[in-house]
Amino acid sequence: MDWTLIQQKLESLRRSIQRVKEKCPKNAAALASDYDAQDILSLNLTRAVQMCVDIGTHLIARSEFPPPATMGKTFDILCESRIITDDLAARMKKAVGFRNLAVHNYESINWEIVFAIATAHLQDFEEFAKSVALLNDTQ
Q: Which CATH architecture has domain 3-138?
């Protein structure tokens, strides 16, 4: 397992989360009218999801499990491997749904949902990072 690579991706994840925290407006209405904040939040949330998927696929590549067919399946396999909980896997799969919308249908993003993610769901990414870091501590 290349823990140096995983640590680099965890650091990228941490930076993306921090950026969202720093640039999130005070409410959804302010976000809806601030194009710079929209770009910063959507880009960094998308990056956070991608980092989690990348870390997950790296962990899976070293296991007996077959490669995931979808980004969401990555989290199912990590759950089956007991790296993350069922609940966290479900939340991360929802994050993948947001990422897909942000990447493929940016113009239809609901900024109230983005605000909710930025203010109430960043801990999902932090919980994912903690679960991965625990693996390194046990090896």
A: Up-down Bundle (1.20)
